[in-house]
Design goal:
Elements lengths: L4 H4 L29 H4 L3 H11 L21 H16 L1
Length: 93
Amino acid sequence: MEHGGGQRNAFKRRGPVDKRNLICEHCHKLGNSKDTCFKINGVSDLYRDLTVQRRKPAVGRAYAANEVQTPVDKSTATGHNLVSDLMEALKLI
């Protein structure tokens, strides 16, 4: 079975484009060209949507620290000392 070669490469990504040597003839900004100048062509809907999306707080990306609780045995002398030392330290805060 043969596949059309043109279809396979239709959406092929181009490599990174070096825009450091571009200067817009209209707004004189570095990295822009007259073809892509926002002042001439306006801001695209895709760019506007992306900037709005970036300003929203990230929902569902809450990160929690790994929390481990170790019970302290109050019946032992060392456990009692730890609790009393902790209480004294909290009073200083």
